[in-house]
Write a structure and sequence with these properties.
The structure is a homotetramer. The first copy, chain A, is an alpha/beta fold and about 290 residues long. Chain A has helices at about 5-15, 25-35, 45-50, 60-75, 90-100, 130-145, 165-180, 195-200, 220-225, 235-255, 270-275, 275-285; strands at about 20-25, 40, 80, 105-110, 150-155, 180-185, 210, 230-235. Chain A has an 8-stranded parallel barrel with strand order 1-2-3-4-5-6-7-8, surrounded by 9 helices. In chain A, strand 6, helix 8 and strand 7 (about 210) form a beta-alpha-beta unit. In chain A, helix 5 (about 90-100) packs parallel to helix 6 (about 130-145), helix 6 (about 130-145) runs parallel beside helix 7 (about 165-180) and helix 7 (about 165-180) crosses helix 8 (about 195-200). Chain A is globular and about 60 Å long. The first copy, chain A, starts with a helix and ends in a 5-residue tail after the last helix. Chains A and B meet through helix 2, helix 3, helix 4, helix 10 and helix 11 of A and helix 2, helix 3, helix 4, helix 10 and helix 11 of B.
Chain lengths: ~290, ~290, ~290, ~290
Amino acid sequence: MDSRVQTLRNLLTGPRLSFLMEAHHGLSAKVVEKTGFEGIWASGLSISASMGLRDANEASWTQVLEVMEFMSDATSLPILADCDSGYGNFNNVRRLIKKLCRIGIAGACIEDKIFPKANSFVTSQNILVDVDEFCGKIKAAKDAQTDPTFNLVARVEALIAGRSVQEALDRAVNYFHAGADAILIHSKKNTAEQILEFAKQCPPQIPLVIIPTSYYNTPTKQFEEVGIKTIIWANYNLRASIKAMEKVSEIIKRERDLLKAEEMVSPLEEVFLLTNEKELDLAKKRYNDQS
Amino acid sequence: MDSRVQTLRNLLTGPRLSFLMEAHHGLSAKVVEKTGFEGIWASGLSISASMGLRDANEASWTQVLEVMEFMSDATSLPILADCDSGYGNFNNVRRLIKKLCRIGIAGACIEDKIFPKANSFVTSQNILVDVDEFCGKIKAAKDAQTDPTFNLVARVEALIAGRSVQEALDRAVNYFHAGADAILIHSKKNTAEQILEFAKQCPPQIPLVIIPTSYYNTPTKQFEEVGIKTIIWANYNLRASIKAMEKVSEIIKRERDLLKAEEMVSPLEEVFLLTNEKELDLAKKRYNDQS
Amino acid sequence: MDSRVQTLRNLLTGPRLSFLMEAHHGLSAKVVEKTGFEGIWASGLSISASMGLRDANEASWTQVLEVMEFMSDATSLPILADCDSGYGNFNNVRRLIKKLCRIGIAGACIEDKIFPKANSFVTSQNILVDVDEFCGKIKAAKDAQTDPTFNLVARVEALIAGRSVQEALDRAVNYFHAGADAILIHSKKNTAEQILEFAKQCPPQIPLVIIPTSYYNTPTKQFEEVGIKTIIWANYNLRASIKAMEKVSEIIKRERDLLKAEEMVSPLEEVFLLTNEKELDLAKKRYNDQS
Amino acid sequence: MDSRVQTLRNLLTGPRLSFLMEAHHGLSAKVVEKTGFEGIWASGLSISASMGLRDANEASWTQVLEVMEFMSDATSLPILADCDSGYGNFNNVRRLIKKLCRIGIAGACIEDKIFPKANSFVTSQNILVDVDEFCGKIKAAKDAQTDPTFNLVARVEALIAGRSVQEALDRAVNYFHAGADAILIHSKKNTAEQILEFAKQCPPQIPLVIIPTSYYNTPTKQFEEVGIKTIIWANYNLRASIKAMEKVSEIIKRERDLLKAEEMVSPLEEVFLLTNEKELDLAKKRYNDQS
């Protein structure tokens, strides 16, 4: 049993608002931990983008899980894994959950869309899977978990697909009764209106999670007031690194030397600190390594 | 045949100074291409650090090559792969080179150290492999390449190991005669003195490559004057991204909202531009995809 | 370009009947080559069964392709890869085909079923994908191939799904016009009646492939007479190895020694011959390996 | 905690002679379990041969572990993993052991040879690693295990390398004191003389394991009498499958039909039984899967 599973449960369902910060590889997971966050969102968009791929299940599910395993090993924080639509049917979901438990991931989020998924922000795709079928996936996931407290978050894409708040609520209630430990309600509107309405009407025993990427200018207090349990900052480490890499690459390209670049980057020692090279040196002595 | 192999050959051996910019995943490879660089250095340190691992062959060679395959697919630039000491003996090198040719990598750099390697900057390890054995690896690599112009760069670690410039030169000449297409001469001193001395004494027909990470404040002109062919900017995208992620994570942690973070990150649209989401939308129509 | 692609084209479309023998890992591919067959069927059922998995896309597509890469490296024969329904939509098919070309696979077979697939023999699943959508996949595959002669075989599951011979013929013609290089017509009946009827009515310019696993007692001559181009012996190496392993394991378990087992197994030298250990010994000398 | 770890401990150290049967993929693991064996030897030679590779660390360690994970998932038996020389130094061993614990492997066997290894039967390589360095690896392995009862078997290659029984005994004692849970003493002689001598002289508290591949005609009773705890039947499933595949391939090639082959193979139903296709059908109903 990995204690991180219980820690994530507390974050998702505890009395106070909690935050999950995006990471997309072992290194960003270490940065999130160093910064003091309590949990990590292993973003599907960020992981695929870091591979140079689109958010459309272009990488295989085992390739994604290999990244997540590096992340799990790199940090002591609990990780909520963004698993898109579950990479197939209920049977694929069962295999997924077993493997996530094995590699120390504390929870999985699956959404009520088809496979392969299309990114919620770039498509007008409005196909949602049938409620009964998705409830079957949720049940299969809960039956498959080898850790009894593993966290399954069901993501409702109804608002993304242009459906009503009422349909979103119906789906949320059904998914919760099928066994989901929390509901992620997603929206791509620029304002939080729909989300706040949803939260007010949602039965209070259902823990809610949101991702305010498109309605980022809503004060956090408003989410707290309607009882949102968890906010995911979904892709900011990825987007910060893109901006920084574009800038430093441009300057080095233009200058043809490193003088101006040097102050834009962390010292090399920071790399060695994050990866704990020191432990390796000590261990070499402890274990008689003569190399 | 991948035309990038010839392009890298031209960069390594052509009349003018060329530059390779570090990348460590598909996304950074795309950033390097967008910025206008002509070639990419797939840094072993950066790739392992991005996995959260130390620069000590902690990831398997196939895990590293999977990252390189994503990089190769993400860009049209030639990639020089940092392959440490070759992940084993001559036979492991043969398998490595065949697979690199297959995934569209334009060249490999192997260094005269043992397996597993220790990072040149963090260790006082001074074990170099025997010259004859390393020449055997070079010959094995050249015999194994399936593209006749594949580029093998032999990295001389003699100066790192505290050996003399003369030993470094002897090794360089031997490696070149064994078949290496270029020699990477490495140093961890704060000044370029040894490197410049090496370059002046090295037979002019041997193409030289350097990585001025520790002696970064030497003007590029000085390298040009001694006939260096290629400069590698070895880990700046990694280190820029660390600095940026630490900053944005800290601010979001402190502020508990995204208002201040928003200007520190690339817009979401930049992610979709880099990964070319648009092509997918067009293709859906072309191929009758109804989802 | 891999010459095996053209060899498979000749087998699929040439004037005389050709045979593909199943293999499911590098070793069985070597056995097939040693026996004198001209081509290999990389069976999805056999590969998943050898992993201990069901024929239901339980392994990821990259895990399957890793096995196929070992197979490609183990033999000089052309390999036709059984790719089930293509592991997703047209976009997943595009990525699949590019990677197959890269690893030296000569052709792919995709079938008109949904993802994840269900095995044709164990299910009564009768969902076929829409003809237009499947034609889109075929076009996407042909546009994605990096070798201009790569072979795409479209597998018609209409008879398996209980549809009429006429629907099977309509699908075959549509798939061929969309770009398929050959049509695999499948049946799970105990007699070849439907298959022979289909073959007689099918336009003669469409090269046909069959898998007579369930109607195995039909004389090959009958298939030749109706113009079938290629017969796949689909899972006999797998099933022979199961029978042999069950027998030898039982005897060793019962006897508690190896005396009776010894004659049931190939000598250890056969293992070393198949994997060519001798070349490694010679290469050690050639490349100055001192270990 | 996986109860298989304790089961293997009991097999290795319990009062009666125990047997481990070789498997090399998920399917053969299932066959071993079906036959009634109590434990599995995941043979390095067999796994690499099944990939079409030589027993010389040609596959990466993560590729080997992926096979072992399929094996672990395919059976409820404890698995002792043949890990060659540990795929590198003490640090690589640490990573290896952590991952083996994670995937449900009950024990690892590492041998006192260099990386990459050469097969004990095909080489005259006589390089053994220094005793202190190998003891360091053993300590590192024991410190790294996340299951307190994980089984580490240290394999002594002294007799293979032509050293004396006394050196073999010295190494065995040192390795046991460094933390090894059992000692595998290996020999490639045609008679068991050296092995029996070793066993008689070895301190009785050290549990011994042997692999009588080359001295297969020695009656098991003799091993029992000198107190051997565990016998590994190391490659018989692999070699049985080679013989069977060669035979069935030859017959199908010659006959051009399946009539004679049919009786040489397990029925297709046996494949479906071994992989438990039935459970999938039942689960489809339970989880509302409409496909």
